[in-house]
Design a protein that fits this description.
The structure is a single chain. It contains eleven helices and nine strands. It is an alpha/beta fold. The chain is globular and about 80 Å long. It starts with a strand and ends with a strand.
């Protein structure tokens, strides 16, 4: 497949469209995580559809002191990877093409959800992100747009914008892609030294520790529900030696701290240990939130949740998250 490199919206609009157009938005420096998004887009668009990958480093979502100038720009390699993954075109506009009048005076506001977690750490970031996503949706005119779950708060805000502002596009989430050691794929991973990378693995280890604690607690609670409710049934189970196991499970499930508090504690322990490493991990936040608004969940919460973490190792800031389900839904 020959992948076209386009730099203007006029070139993109001139392309003949037959089936659905699926768009994958990136800031370049493509890696296997992006390739997974592109392959998913290819599958959704089908042989008659079109897959467009955007490559644009958006200055609006970089704050003072962030890495706009050193953000990797690898367009030739990006074009090659996108083509191998199934892209029909790479749309790589200039800043003047996206913002022809300079920085836009009218922007999309992320609202209260955009001020939490990543938004609190990076003021204005989500306003800039939503503004460029809105611009690129208008410029590329897709039927479907795909985003990775690694940027969970970004994904939630884009879905909210599309719903609240009546964009005629379907938003599809693609699961986080990880390297063999568990580190979530990111263009910023290349900044890590070998020692820094070893420390950075604490992010995914913390998330997995929280997930495993939650799974163990759910298993204990499920086992406790099997405890017989009558004396006659207990005596019957005693004959085959199961009542003690059921009782033990019930005692542990009842006595052990569970739910969101236990998940946070398990993850926090890993992060606290990583803070004592050389080089240390400097935690920005650890949060267990409702994906509808990214507020912290309470101990009586039921339903889908996101366990999210952000931290710095050396000069590099990394984020990661995993989904969890609490209560009856699990």
């Amino acid at each position: 497949m020959t992948t076209a490199l386009l730099s203007t919206a006029e070139e993109l609009h001139a392309r003949v469209r037959h089936g659905s157009r699926a768009v994958v938005m990136t800031m370049g420096a493509l890696h296997e995580g992006h390739a997974t998004l592109i392959r998913s887009a290819r599958e959704i668009a089908g042989p008659d559809g079109e897959v467009v990958v955007t490559v644009f480093v958006n200055p609006l979502q970089f704050g003072a002191g962030e890495d706009l100038d050193r953000y990797p720009r690898t367009l030739d390699a990006d074009l090659e990877l996108a083509g191998r993954a199934g892209a029909d075109a790479v749309f790589a506009p200039s800043v003047d093409e996206v913002y022809p009048g300079g920085e836009p005076q009218v922007r999309v506001s992320a609202g209260p959800m955009g001020e939490r977690l990543e938004g609190a750490s990076r003021p204005g970031h989500f306003d800039g992100m939503l503004t460029v996503v809105a611009k690129l949706l208008h410029l590329t005119r897709p039927d479907i747009a795909l985003f990775g779950q690694k940027d969970a708060q970004q994904l939630a805000l884009i879905r909210r914008m599309v719903r609240d502002l009546n964009f005629g596009v379907e938003i599809v989430a693609v699961p986080t892609v990880r390297e063999e050691d568990g580190l979530a794929l990111s263009s910023r991973n290349r900044y890590l030294s070998p020692d820094e990378r070893r420390t950075a693995l604490a992010l995914s280890r913390a998330l997995f520790a929280g997930r495993d604690r939650h799974a163990a607690q759910e298993a204990l609670r499920a086992r406790a529900r099997e405890v017989p409710s009558t004396h006659a049934r207990a005596e019957a189970l005693s004959a085959i030696g199961e009542s003690r196991a059921a009782a033990d499970a019930h005692a542990v499930a009842t006595a052990a701290p569970g739910g969101p508090a236990a998940v946070r504690a398990a993850a926090r322990q890993v992060l606290d240990e990583a803070a004592r490493l050389d080089p240390p991990l400097r935690l920005d936040y650890l949060a267990l939130v409702d994906p509808a608004d990214f507020t912290e969940i309470g101990d009586d919460f039921t339903g889908e949740a996101v366990l999210a973490v952000a931290a710095r190792v050396g000069a590099t800031r990394l984020i990661d998250n995993i989904p969890l389900t609490f209560g009856a839904a699990s």
